[in-house]
Amino acid sequence: MARSIPAEYESRSLRVTLTSFLWRQAKVMGGLLLLGVLGLAVAALSTWNVLDPSYSNATSREPSNILGSAGAYFADLMMQFFGLGAVLALLPVFSWSLMMVFNVPVYRLLKRALAWFGGSVLSAAALSCFQAPATWPIPNGLGGVFGDLILKFPALFIGSYPQGLTAGFIGTLCAAPALGLLAFAANLIVTSEPEFVQQPGKPEMPVKIVRQQPVMEDDEEESESPFSYVAGYATHAWYSVQARLRRLTGKPARKPVRHDFDEPYDLNDEEFGLMHASAAEGRSGGRAEPSLFGDAEKPMSPLRRIISAPSMNPDFDDDDDEPPFDTERSRPAGILPDEEDDDDLDNWQVKPEVRAPQRVAMTQRPANPPMSRATPQPQQVSQAVRPRPAPIAERFVAKAGHDGFDLPPLDLLAEPKNIAKDASLSADALEQNARILEGVLDDFGVKGNIIHVRPGPVVTLYELEPAPGIKSSRVIGLADDIARSMSAIAARVAVVPGRNAIGIELPNKSREMVFLREMFAARDFDTSKAKLAVALGKTIGGEPVIADLAKMPHLLVAGTTGSGKSVAINTMILSLLYRMTPEQCRLIMIDPKMLELSVYDGIPHLLSPVVTDPKKAVVALKWTVREMEERYKKMSKIGVRNIDGFNARVSQALDKGEQITRTVQTGFDRQTGEAIYESEEFDLQPIPYIVVIIDEMADLMMVAGKDIEGAVQRLAQMARAAGIHVIMATQRPSVDVITGTIKANFPTRISFQVTSKIDSRTILGEQGAEQLLGMGDMLYMAGGGRIQRVHGPFVSDLEVEDVVAFLKTQGTPQYLDAITADDDDEDGDGDGRGPAGTSNLSDSEDPYDQAVAVVLRDGKASTSYIQRRLGIGYNRAASIIERMEKEGIVGPANHAGKREILVPTEEDILAR
C-alpha cells in the first residue's frame, strides 16, 4: 500500500534541499575568492623589492611591485615580520580554499587559526637560526622580527644569539612543531573523537553512542590521509567537468543507470546505519539526500523498517512489535529492572520524531556475517502497554468549598510540555553505562555486579551488588571519583534500604522538568486522604511524592541560595491553597527577606499580613503558642484528644442544633455538705488548621535567638494535636541556626543542594546533599529516618501571581490584630490594674468600651469570650476582664471560670 507524503514533510524537505544547495554554492564562491586573494598575495611577495615605498622605507620612487603600492606595503609587512616564513604561512590558506571549493568540512576552526599563527611564528624562528647571506636586504634575520624575538629567549641563557650547532639544534626544535602546527592548520592532521577503551577481562560493549555533529557530512573523510585528499580533489574535478560537459552538450552517459531495487542488497550495519541515521530520526542529512519513503510499493525488511523515516504526523503511533534496537545482541539477564521498568524503557524509546539525533555504530562486526543477517527474525519481547493518563481537564475539576468558596482551577498553572526522552536512556545505552561503571569500580578495587538500572526523569539509579567483604563506606567514599570517571556533574552513593545493594545515582544527559500542574493532576494528589497534602515532587522512578503535613508534623527545609528552596516553599503553599478553604486552613507567613512571601498578601487564608519585621515575628510566634494553649483548654473541656476529634464533635452538635454542655462541681453546701454542681455551656465553632511558614530562620535567630528557639520548640513539641504546624526554611544550615533542640523536634527534613558534607550532616545527619544537582533536587527524610531523593516541581512567579489573583476574588482576609500586636509580659505598676497590657489599655479606651458593651449585651463575661468576640490576644482580654472586675462590672471567677455580671444588662433593662 503506497504511503502519501505529508505536505509539511514535503515542504520541509524542499526547504532543506534548497538551503543545502545555496550553502554549498556560497562555499564554492568563497573558496574561489580566497584562492584569488592568495594568488595576489603570492604575486606581491614574488615581486617584493626592499627599495619600494613602504612603512620601513619612505621614498618617492615608483613601486616595482606588480600590485603597485598596495602590494609593496603588504609584501614589506610580511617580509619584515615573518621573513621567508611568510611563504610557509600561505600554505594553510591554499588548503582552506581548496576545501571550500570541494565542500570538505573543516572542524575546530578556532584551534586551526591559532595553530596557523603559532606555526608561522615558529617557522620564522627556525629560519632565523640560519645565517643570513650578505645579500639579505633587511636588517633582521631570515625569520624577520618574530624570528629574532623568539631567539631572544635562548639568548638570555647563553649570552648571545645562537650560532653553529646550538643554532641548528634550536632551529630543529622550532621547525618540528612549526610543521606540525601548519599541517594541523591546513587540515592535513585530523583528530578523531575519543572512543571507549575496552577494559581487559570485561565483556565487550555491544554499542557505542557517539555524539553527532550539527551538520552530518561524510564522517569518514576525517580519517583519510593527505594523499587521498589530493586524489579526491583531482577525481572530483574530473567528474564535475564531465558532468557539466554532458549537460551542455546534451549527451547521455555511456552506461545506463541500473535500477536493482528488485534484487536483495547487503545491509552493511556501519555504512548503511551512518548514511540513514538522520532519516531514522526524522531529519534530513547534511550531504546524503535520500528519498523520503523510498519505493513504497515494495515490502520492507525488518531492518529497513527500523531505520526508515518516521511519520511527521503528531498523532502517529508506531504499533510495531519489534524492538527499536538490534534484538540479536544478547543482554545480561539482570541488567534491566523489573517489568514496570522495562515498560518505562519501551515507552521512552518510541518517539524518534522528538529525540535528539544519535549515531549508533557497532564496535565489532564478524568477518563473515551469516546470510540470515539481512532478514533477521525479531525476538518476541513482551511489552506491557502502559495505560495513557486521562487529559488533565477531565481528571481535575475545581472543587467548591464552604460558603461558595471555589478552589483555584488547574488552568492557572502552566501545562507540562512534551518532553523528548533522552536517547542515552535506551536499553543499550544503559547496558553500556552499567558495564563502564563496573569497570570504574573495578579500577578502584570494588568488586561487584550491577543488578538493576532504574532510569528516572533527572537521574538514573544503578544498583550495585558488592562482592563479599566490600564495605559500604568504602563505596560511598568513592562518589567524587565515580563522578569524574563517568564524566558526570555529581554522583550520589547510598545504601538501598532493605536490600543487599548500593545505589549509585548518576545524572542524565538531558534533564526532564517536573511541572506542578502534573503533580496536582496526579491521582495520588487528587484522591489523597491526607489532611494537609503537600506535593513534594517525583522520585527517581518518576512516581509522585505526596506528603501529609499533619503527620510530619513539622518540616525543616534547608539549602543554599539557588538550590530551589524558595520554589519548593511556593509549591507547598500552593498545595494547601488548592485543597483547603480559609475555614479549613489558615496561614501565618513570616518573611524577614520581604521578597519571597509578600506575593501572598491579601489572600483569604492569611490570619495576618505577611510578617516582615523580625521583632513582629517573635510576637506572632508567641501568639501562636498562646493559641495552641487555648485550643488545648477547649479540647480538654469537651474530652477530645486532637483537632479532628474537636471539629467532629462541634460539627455534630451544630448539625443537630444542640449545645455542648459540661457538668462541673463548683463547691459544697455549707449547711448540708452536699456537692454543688453547675452546668457549663460551650459556644464553640470548628477551628481551622494553622500552618506557620518561616522563610528564613537565620535572620530571626540573629535578632531574637532565645525567644525564637523557645517558641519554635514549644510549637514543635506540643502543637501537633492542636492542628498547628510549622514549615521552617533556612539557607544557612549551620549549627547556630539549626540547633540540636530544633533538630530533635523536627523529625521531617528536606535538604537541597549544600556546599559541604558538614552542612549535609547538620541537616540530615549524613552526607549526600552536597552531591545534589540543584534546581529542585532534594533529599527528603521522613520521620522514620529513611532518606528519599525527590525532584521538586517548578512553578513560576507568574503562576503564583495568577493563583493569588484568583483567591483574592473569592473573598477578603479576616486579619487578627493580636497576632502582631506588641504585648508586655511584665507586671503592672502597682495600681492594682493587673497583669500585662493594662497600661496600654488606659491609653486606648476603645477596646475596653467595646468589651463592656459585649458583656452587657450578651450577658457573658469570660476571657476567652472577650478574646473571641473582639479578635484580640489572650493577655489583652484578661487585662480587660480584670479591669471590669476592679471597676465592679463583673464579679470574681468561680471554679468553672464563669463571672457574675454585677451591673444591669440590656435584658434586665428591657425587663423593667
From TrEMBL:
Biased composition (Acidic residues): 315-325, 337-346, 820-829
Pfam families reported for this sequence: FtsK_4TM, FtsK_alpha, FtsK_gamma, FtsK_SpoIIIE
Key words, A-Z: ATP-binding, Cell cycle, Cell division, Cell membrane, Chromosome partition, DNA-binding, Membrane, Nucleotide-binding, Transmembrane, Transmembrane helix
Biased composition range(s): Polar residues: 374-383
Domain of life: Bacteria
Binding site residues for ATP: 559-566
Domain FtsK: from-to ranges: 542-761
Main location: membrane
SUPFAM superfamilies, alphabetized: P-loop containing nucleoside triphosphate hydrolases (SSF52540), Winged helix' DNA-binding domain (SSF46785)
UniProt topology in membrane: Multi-pass membrane protein
UniProt GO BP: cell division; chromosome segregation
Family: Belongs to the FtsK/SpoIIIE/SftA family.
Designated name of the protein: DNA translocase FtsK
Protein species of origin: Rhizobium setariae
